[in-house]
Each structure stands twice: as structure tokens, then as C-alpha cells.
């Protein structure tokens, strides 16, 4: 076909497309991912900033500890792989990062709100959500500078057009809730802070949007009352029929309700943004309801841990060597992590993460109900 005929065809296609209804959308493959969050989405950020995690973290897939809190891949890894993209390098990784298809700003122990106690003296990551936003804000002009300079570093950063086309993913909020539970406050008091936590979350999403982000994939929070972290530390909690701490899960549910409502409002406030709310709570909870169906046993017992009914003790972290009455004990993995839901008492195994990923990527748990492979879209209003 001659170039002139080609452009005629293009013109006709263009006319046909632009006459589509006003809410038409244009789907494309996400070329990059910018991720924000906490340990459920950390691919090695906290480990890069402070100290390496030890094996058996990473044993199943990587055969080395990458800084992920799991035996293998986490949900953000499956998301990247589903787009044919490499695993995300942590922003804080100074050794050999490759940011061509995205960056991971998530660090374990991050909160949405400013933390009142930070590592190494306290419990939380200093890189809470606003700092992650600021790191991203600074990243954009710095990549432009490097791109303009050329050379080897210019081959390791995203193309300029990726910032508007990328998928912006979020998994954060659990630590704001658990931080409350471990503080000297009641469940109801933690619950009452949720509207403020969610408002804070929204402010950060708006800030990231104002830098040109358009497609958002935002996870809600999981059933914290099913985690050994909660079950072992609050033994008198009322249990549901699956053995999960009922009221703690209700706090997760209230967070999720407020988040879903706030994102519905955000779609009105930011009409050009593609905002997907992703319910990870339901697929995670269904693992505890029906462990056998998914090939799991001992649903509430940590695979890598030590002590008690839930194989969990705050003082015996996965991969550490502890001293019990003068005997040194290595806190290692259970025999087959692939038959377990919970990895270390707070995080999920690769096998569980894969099942949750498979379910959320279909669109059955998202609002609006779009599958992951259509999450990058542009409204043509
Ligand atoms: C895993 O790593 C260990 C050393 O840490 C090595 O001996 C072993 O061969 C590795 N296994 C695989 C499958 O790469
Ligand atoms: C960085 O990642 C991209 C995409 O995976 C790859 O094509 C490129 O070779 C990588 N660069 C280096 C220096 O490894
Ligand atoms: C916890 O709260 C109770 C009641 O508000 C108070 O009496 C107590 O001193 C507090 N304990 C700590 C360790 O802050
Ligand atoms: C949390 O607060 C909401 C709104 O006041 C309420 O409906 C819900 O029952 C509360 N949940 C818990 C566990 O206190
Ligand atoms: C340590 O020894 C004490 C006294 O013999 C005993 O009561 C306790 O259960 C032991 N702790 C563990 C974790 O085995």
C-alpha cells in the first residue's frame, strides 16, 4: 500500500474511533510499573536500606534472599511477569538496579500516615507513603537529566513516555492498622482512625496523579485477623468459624469499605484517571475458608517460624538464629512451603500469592470489573 493510501485508511479509522461514545476507553499494554507500598509489595527496598534478609526467605523461587518477605515471588512479581516485564528493582537498591520498566518504592513496615516510631529504634519504615511519593517526584527530573547526558546510565531508566502510560500500583495500609493494635489503644479506637488513614492515602494518590500518572491499580488490605502475628499476640481475641480473629478482620473490612468509597469519589474528581480498586481481602480470606480446595494444610500456622500454636513468636523471626535456654536454634522453613498459606506469620507464601494473583487478575475482584491486562487505559472523554 502506498503511503498516501495508508494515511487515508488511518484517517478513516481515526474518524470511526472518534465517533465512539464519550466514555470510550483506549486500552494498551502497560510498558512500566511504579509501585508504592509495604512488605506485601517490597521486592528488597527495606533490605537495601537497612540489612539483608536471610534465607529461607526466597528459597523457593530465587534460591537466595532478595529482600522479599516470602519463600518466593510476591503479587507484584506476578503482575510484572504477566505484562512480560522484569521484576521491579527497589528504588533504594544502589547495586545494579535496572529501572527501564519501572521502580518499586515500597518498603516493608511502611505506613500511610507518618509513623511515630521508626527503624532501627522503632517498628516502622521511615519511607512512609508521602516519602515514597517524594522519591517518585524527584525521580522524574533526575531521569530526564540522566537521559539527556546519555551513556550507560541512560540505558537503565524508563522512557519519558512511560510515566503517563505506566501502571501505578499500591499495596499499603496494613501497618497503619497493626501499629494501632500494638499501641495502647482499643480495637474501636484503631477503627476510628480509619477515615483519616484513607484520606491520607487519597492525598498521596492525587499527588502522584498530579505528576502525570493516569492508570492506578490499588489493592485493599487483607484479613489481618487470620495472621499468626495477630492470633499469637492477642490470644483472647474472639474467633470466627475459621479460627481468624473476627474483630481484627472487621477493622480490615472497614478500611476496605472506606477505601472503596473514597476511590469512587476520586473517579469523579479525576475524570481522566483509570482507577481500579482491587479486593485482595476476599481471595486471601477464601484460602482460610477452603484451604484443602487450594491444596493447603495448617492454614493459620506459619511455615517459617518458631513456637506455640501458630508457630510464631515476635522474638523468633524467619531466618534468624535464636537462643532458647542456652540452645541456639535456627528459625527455618517448614518441609513444603507450597502446601502452606502463611510464610512467616505476617506474609504469604509464593503458592498463596500466586492463587491470589490469579484471582485478582481476572477482574472478578476489581471495581470497575476490569482484568489486569486491561488496567492501563485512557478515557477518551
Ligand atoms: C542454591 O544455592 C545454593 C548456595 O546457596 C547452591 O549450592 C545450590 O546449588 C543452588 N541451587 C540451585 C537450584 O540453583
Ligand atoms: C535492563 O532491563 C532491560 C529490560 O529487561 C534489558 O533489556 C536491559 O538489557 C537491562 N540492562 C542491563 C544493563 O542489564
Ligand atoms: C495504657 O492506657 C491505659 C488507659 O488509658 C493507661 O492507664 C496506661 O498507663 C497506658 N499504658 C501505657 C504503657 O502507656
Ligand atoms: C468500625 O467503625 C464503623 C463505623 O463507625 C462501624 O460500623 C464498625 O462496626 C466498626 N468496627 C469495629 C470492629 O469496631
Ligand atoms: C526454658 O526453661 C524453662 C525452665 O526449665 C522452661 O520452663 C521453659 O519452658 C523453657 N523454654 C522453652 C522455650 O523451652
Our measurement of the CA-to-CA distance between the termini, rounded to an integer number of angstroms, reads: 33 Å
The CATH topology turns out to be: Rossmann fold
Number of helices, where a helix is a run of at least 4 consecutive DSSP H or I residues: 12
The residue-averaged pLDDT reads 93
The helix fraction, in percent, is 25-40%
Poorly predicted ranges (pLDDT <50, ≥5 residues)?
1-22
- What structural category characterises the helix and strand content? alpha/beta
Report the major sheet. Answer: 6 strands, mixed
CATH architecture: 3-Layer(aba) Sandwich
State the assembly state of the protein chains: single chain
Order of helices and strands: HEEHHEHHEHHHEHHEHEEHEE
β-strand percent reads: 5-15%
What radius of gyration results from the CA coordinates?
22 Å
User: Tally of extended strands?
Assistant: 10
CATH class: Alpha Beta
Total domains, how many?
Answer: 1
Shape: globular
Care to give the gist of this entry?
The chain has 12 helices and 10 strands.
Summarize the structure in words.
By secondary structure, this protein is of the alpha/beta class. The protein has a single domain, classed as Rossmann fold. The protein is built from twelve helices and ten strands. Helix 4 runs parallel beside helix 8 and helix 8 packs parallel to helix 10. It is globular and about 60 Å long. The structure holds 2-acetamido-2-deoxy-beta-D-glucopyranose (NAG) (5 copies). One 2-acetamido-2-deoxy-beta-D-glucopyranose binds next to loops.
Amino acid at each position: 500500500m502506498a503511503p498516501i493510501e495508508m494515511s487515508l485508511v488511518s484517517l478513516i479509522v481515526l474518524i470511526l474511533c472518534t465517533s465512539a461514545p464519550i466514555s470510550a476507553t483506549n486500552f494498551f499494554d502497560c510498558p512500566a510499573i511504579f509501585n508504592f507500598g509495604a512488605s506485601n509489595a517490597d521486592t528488597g527496598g527495606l533490605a537495601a536500606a537497612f540489612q539483608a534478609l536471610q534465607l529461607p526467605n526466597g528459597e523457593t523461587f530465587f534460591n537466595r534472599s532478595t529482600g522479599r518477605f516470602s519463600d518466593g515471588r510476591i503479587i507484584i512479581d506476578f503482575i510484572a511477569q504477566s505484562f512480560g516485564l522484569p521484576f521491579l528493582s527497589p528504588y533504594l537498591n544502589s547495586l545494579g538496579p535496572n529501572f527501564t520498566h519501572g521502580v518499586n518504592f515500597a518498603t516493608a513496615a511502611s505506613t500511610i500516615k507518618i509513623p511515630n516510631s521508626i527503624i532501627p529504634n522503632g517498628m516502622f519504615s521511615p519511607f512512609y507513603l508521602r516519602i515514597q511519593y517524594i522519591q517518585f517526584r524527584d525521580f522524574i527530573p533526575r531521569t530526564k537529566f540522566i537521559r539527556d547526558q546519555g551513556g550507560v546510565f541512560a540505558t537503565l531508566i524508563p522512557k519519558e513516555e512511560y510515566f503517563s502510560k505506566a501502571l501505578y500500583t499500591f499495596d499499603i495500609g496494613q501497618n497503619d492498622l497493626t501499629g494501632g493494635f500494638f499501641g495502647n489503644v482499643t480495637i474501636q479506637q484503631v477503627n476510628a482512625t480509619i477515615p483519616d488513614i484513607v484520606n491520607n492515602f487519597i492525598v498521596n494518590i492525587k499527588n502522584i496523579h498530579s505528576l502525570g500518572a493516569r492508570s492506578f491499580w490499588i489493592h485493599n488490605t487483607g484479613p489481618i485477623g487470620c495472621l499468626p502475628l495477630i492470633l499469637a499476640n492477642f490470644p483472647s481475641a474472639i474467633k470466627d468459624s475459621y479460627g481468624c480473629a473476627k474483630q481484627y478482620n472487621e477493622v480490615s473490612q472497614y478500611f476496605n469499605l472506606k477505601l472503596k468509597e473514597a476511590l469512587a469519589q476520586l473517579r469523579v474528581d479525576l475524570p481522566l484517571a483509570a482507577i481500579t480498586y482491587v479486593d485482595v481481602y476476599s481471595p486471601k480470606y477464601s484460602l482460610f475458608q477452603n484451604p484443602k480446595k487450594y491444596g493447603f494444610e495448617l492454614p493459620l500456622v506459619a511455615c517459617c517460624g518458631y513456637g506455640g500454636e501458630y508457630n510464631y513468636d515476635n522474638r523468633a523471626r524467619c531466618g534468624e538464629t535464636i537462643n532458647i535456654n542456652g540452645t541456639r536454634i535456627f528459625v527455618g522453613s517448614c518441609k513444603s512451603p507450597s502446601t502452606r498459606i502463611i510464610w512467616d506469620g505476617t506474609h504469604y507464601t509464593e503458592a498463596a500469592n500466586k492463587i491470589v494473583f490469579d484471582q485478582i487478575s481476572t477482574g472478578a475482584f476489581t471495581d470497575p470489573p476490569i482484568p489486569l491486562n486491561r488496567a492501563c487505559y485512557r478515557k477518551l472523554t
